[in-house]
Write a structure and sequence with these properties.
- The chain is α/β, with parallel strands linked by helices.
- It folds into two domains: 189 residues, no CATH class; 49 residues.
- Helix 9 packs across helix 11 and helix 10 packs antiparallel against helix 11.
- The longest helix is centred in the last third of the chain and has 18 residues.
- The chain contains eleven helices and eight strands.
- It is 41% helix and 11% strand.
- Strands 1-4-5-6-8-7 form a six-stranded mixed sheet, sandwiched between helices. Strands 2-3 form a two-stranded antiparallel ribbon.
- The termini are far apart.
- The protein is globular, with a radius of gyration of 23 Å.
Length: 317
Amino acid sequence: MINNSITKEQYKLFEDILNEFEKLRTLSPEEKEDLIISITSRTYIDLMCDWAFKHVFGHDQRNLIPLLNDILSTDIATIDYDSNEIDRWKGDDKNIIMDVLCHTKDGTRFIVEMQRADKEHLRNRLFYYGATMASTQLKRGDNYGKLMPVYVVCFMNFCLRHDSDRLIYRYQIRDNDGERYGSQLTICLCELPRLVCKPRCAMTPVERWFDILRNMTNFAKRPVEYGARYERVFEASRQSPFSLENKKQYLRSMFDYKERSYLTDEDRAEIRAEALAEGLAEGKAEGKAEGKAEVAKALEKLGIDADIIRKATGLSV
C-alpha cells in the first residue's frame, strides 16, 4: 500500500530512480516499496546524507554559523560560501569536491564534511583538503603573512581509534613536547556515535548538535528543550515543502548510500580477508614476499576464495 504522502505517479518516479542502482534493482517489489516509504514518510530528512547536509548547511549561513561557533568555540558573525569543487592546477591533479566550503571576511577558510561511512585514508583526505585550501590562498607577490587559518570540520557516523574518549578531537601541528607550531591548520573530528545518551534538557550545545545531526530523521517534531535557536535548522530539514526536484535529489543520495551499504557475501568475504591480512601482516617486515605468503596460507586455511586472497595480499593466484 503506497503511503498517502506521495501519489502513484511520484511513487513510480521514485521507483525508477531506485532501479538506477544495480544492487537495489534486485530487491523484491515489497522491499522496494518499504525502502521508498521509509525515506519519504519521515518528517525530516537525514542530515547524515550528503545531499541533505549540503541542503541545510551549504546555502544558508544562518544554519552553518551557529554550528561552527559551537563546535569550534569561535565568534563568527558572517561567512561567504565558495564553490565546493576546487580548480585543478594541472590536468592530472586530483579532483576535489567538498561538502561545504566557506570563508570569513578576513579570509579564514572553513571546510565542513559529513561522512556517513568510513572511508579509506580519511585522515589523509582531510589533511589534503586543508593543505589545498592553504596552498590556494596566496598569489604571486603575496607576503606569507597573508596566509589565513584553515579549519577542517568532519562529522562522522563512525568512530576511529583514539587514545581517549571525547566528542571532538582537535588536531594542530605541534612539536613532540606539545608546543604549537601555529594555527595555520586545524582538523576537527566529530564522531557522532560518541554522544552519550542523556536527557535533552541536560545537553550542552555541542551535544545538541550531535543529537540533531545523528537523529534528525527520527524526530517527529522539534524537541521543545532545544528552544528556538535550532528552529531554522529543523524547518530547513522538513520534507513536506520540498519540490519534486529536491525530493528526487534527496532520494537519489539516500539510495546511493543504501546501495553502498548493501554488501554481497563476496563483498563481506573480501572485507574480512583484507582485515585479516592486515592483522596477520602486522609485525612482519614490510614488503617481504615470505610475509605475504604466510598471510596467504593463513587465509587459505580459513576457506577464503583464492581471488579474494589475491586482492588482499597482492600475490598472484
